[in-house]
Amino acid sequence: MSIVTTDMAMSLDGYAAGPRQRREAPFGDGPSGEITRWMFDAAEANSAELEAVTGAAAYIMGRNMFGPDRGEYDLDWRGWWGPEPPYHAPVFVLGHHEREPLTLSDTTFTFVTGGIHEALDLAREAAGGGRIDIAGGARTVNQYLAAGLIDEIRVHVTPVIMGEGTRLFEGARGVRLEQVAARGSDLVSHITYRVLRD
């Protein structure tokens, strides 16, 4: 069976995005750009982590992770990344509005309205036993974590305090973790945890 992981970049105080996310500010207001700076300014030094982020056999993401619009989809919107998404596997986007699948390069985005379990079933089928990554955002990860559906958490913690926004781990009370790896630099600390089952 597929292992389910998540990779989340976050601030030292646990925020994965600042407040007021919108088209002009995908990660919201405040110093939110700091939490992903390591991906761009130090890509070579963090290549193993970046390869892990983009190396899943299928992905699940929330509506905010795909785009800024609410309500019916803006059918001209192709995602924050443009015509070449960083995902090279099927992506299942959670939402409340239907949309036909969207294929960009070698990635097909399938829009799922039946909730987290339906998306996971579809991702398991698409992954064929390979790893499934809950790509974000924080609210989506929190739902999967609270439901006991994540096996491994990889957090990428940057030394910035945001103070507000969307926080990772909200609503995931009582989840027990075992640290299995850690490595870092001045821009980021990468910490991997296994989720312990009772």
Automatic annotation (TrEMBL):
GO terms for molecular function: 5-amino-6-(5-phosphoribosylamino)uracil reductase activity. It holds the Pfam family RibD_C. It comes from the Bacteria. InterPro entries: DHFR-like_dom_sf (IPR024072), RibDG_C (IPR002734), Riboflavin_Biosynth_HTPR (IPR050765). Residues 4-186 form the Bacterial bifunctional deaminase-reductase C-terminal domain. GO terms for biological process: riboflavin biosynthetic process. Transmembrane segments: none annotated. This is RibD C-terminal domain protein.
